[in-house]
Design goal:
Blueprint lengths: L2 H8 L2 H4 L8 E10 L12 H14 L4 E2 L3 E7 L5 H9 L5 H4 L6 E5 L4 E5 L5 E8 L3 H16 L6 E2 L3 E2 L11 E8 L1 H5 L3 H10 L2 E4 L12 E6 L7 H29 L1 H17 L5 H16 L8 H10 L2 H7 L6 H30 L1
Antiparallel strand pairs: 1-6, 1-9, 2-3, 3-4, 4-5, 5-6, 7-8, 9-11, 10-11
Length: about 375
């Protein structure tokens, strides 16, 4: 399969589309945690209960088509290969925890991959909506539609005082986890991020790495999400997060401008060295890839690089992950083989972009 065909089938919409404030915000995610009243929570449920939960979704929502997002496909974890599950994690469509639930776990996934309903993860139901750019309000609206559709068929575990009941006490209440994935290279370079993260934590928010809890902020990419789900409405949680994110956007843009004005030559040198590394390397590790992609994306956003679009960086951020590499190249790869194939894939993707750019210029002339 050619890389172009592979990307056409493999890329989620948030990776190759731009949304509001896409220069800073890569994606917005809403996740609602729910449990079915008549069953034990997944941490204590029996085999029969877990199978019944999975069967419920298989008979009520599998292959149904919804406006804007298309048909829902049911993926059962015990029917997927390890590489396939790893790819779903790398695309942020399922959690690492669900990928390890080989017996009971499942996922209903929309055609455009904006909606993912995880089944028998930490809770019976985790409805996730993932949009490009800063679109938390839109993602919440979509998640609530699916929440309402499901609640028409089952009774949720709910308490009048506490709200929705969940396996983890930190999710009790609304069951809502709202998060945005942000690219903050200027604040990292100037070390402002070291002061900002504690301040964010004091506001009831948490800063994590690219794959959420327990992951590192590789490539200067951070996830900002709410910690409090009890005692606040869904609307208030989302509005509070948006307010903080908008402040971060302003600070990052201001810091980028100041950095460029004070250190233009050094910044341009850093950007073009990273572009050169991506363009010509024959071996490249994932950590170096993340650093170079961050530099090049910053260069695109500042107008230093004019011939590439930032969506390419979104794509490469995912395409160069171990699962994707092994899926594209057709099987398991040792770490050193992945480094070689990663470099080859990056070169091929950049060549595709240059060919596309040339065709556009030829058409205009």
């Amino acid at each position: 399969m050619s890389l172009q065909n592979f990307m056409n089938h493999a890329m989620s919409s948030w990776m190759n589309k731009e949304g509001p404030d896409s220069d800073i915000v890569l994606s917005s995610r809403i996740r609602l945690a729910r449990n079915i009243e008549k069953f034990n929570f997944p941490t204590l449920s029996t085999y029969e209960e877990s199978q019944e939960v999975l069967h419920f979704f298989e008979t009520t929502l599998k292959n149904k088509t919804f406006p804007k997002i298309g048909r829902l496909e049911l993926l059962k974890m015990n029917e997927l290969q390890p590489i396939q599950k790893r790819v779903l994690v790398e695309k942020h469509l399922i959690s690492p925890n669900l990928s390890e639930n080989a017996i009971f776990g499942g996922c209903l996934l929309s055609e455009n991959e904006e909606v993912s309903i995880m089944i028998n993860e930490e809770d019976h139901i985790r409805i996730q909506c993932l949009f490009p750019g800063l679109q938390l309000g839109e993602a919440l609206e979509m998640a609530n539609k699916f929440d309402n559709w499901i609640e028409e068929e089952v009774d949720y575990a709910f308490d009048e005082q506490c709200g929705y009941l969940t396996s983890c006490p930190t999710n009790v209440g609304t069951g809502l986890r709202a998060s945005v994935m942000m690219h903050l290279p200027a604040m990292v370079l100037t070390q402002k991020i070291n002061r900002i993260i504690p301040a964010i934590n004091h506001l009831g928010l948490v800063v994590r790495g690219i794959y959420g809890e327990g992951s590192e902020a590789v490539g200067n990419i951070f996830q900002i999400s709410n910690q409090i789900t009890l005692g606040k409405s869904e609307k208030d949680i989302v509005e509070d997060l948006i307010s903080v994110v908008q402040q971060l956007i302003t600070q990052e843009r201001t810091t980028r401008e100041a950095l460029y004005n004070s250190s233009q030559n050094q910044l341009e040198d850093r950007v073009f060295r990273s572009l050169g590394t991506l363009t010509y390397s024959r071996i490249i590790e994932s950590s170096e890839t993340a650093k170079c992609l961050s530099d090049v994306r910053l260069g695109i956003d500042l107008g230093i690089i004019k011939d590439l679009s930032r969506t390419i960086l979104n794509e490469l951020m995912i395409l160069t992950q171990p699962g994707f590499l092994q899926q594209y190249f057709g099987g398991p790869l040792r770490p050193n083989e992945r480094d070689i194939r990663r470099a080859a894939l990056i070169r091929e993707r950049l060549n595709l972009e240059m060919e596309r750019k040339k065709r556009m210029e030829d058409d205009e002339s």
